[in-house]
Amino acid sequence: MQRPIEPKQFTSISFAETLALEGIAASIGSIGDAYDNALAESTIGLFKNEAIRDDSPFRNGPLRTVDDVEWVTAEWVDWYNHRRLHSTLGDVPPDEFEAVYYADLETPSHPVLAPA
């Protein structure tokens, strides 16, 4: 029987130390659960295709510095959350979908009766 690979084997010691120094808790998925990884991989693929590729509308030249990548990333995340239409969300951006979701939670689904 093969032993499962521990998540810590995939994490760099220096990365973990950097997180600790910044007071950030690492979020590593549970063993044998590929669902969280699938979401991350899908998002990374979209990011590479939509923001990082050479002909991306978010780029105005080569990515030479970390600042260049940070600006492209910030612009892409803003667009992704506020303007990109997501077919799985009914062709609305995530922030609009989330606003409707929480508004529905706050709206009673049954009539409120006045006290007698």
UniProtKB/TrEMBL annotation:
Against Pfam families, the record matches this protein to: rve_3 (PF13683)
Q: Which PROSITE patterns match?
A: INTEGRASE
Tell me the superkingdom of the source: Bacteria
Q: What's an example GO BP annotation here?
A: DNA integration
An example Gene Ontology molecular-function term: nucleic acid binding
Stretches assigned to the Integrase catalytic domain: 1-101
**What is the name of this protein?**
Transposase InsO family protein
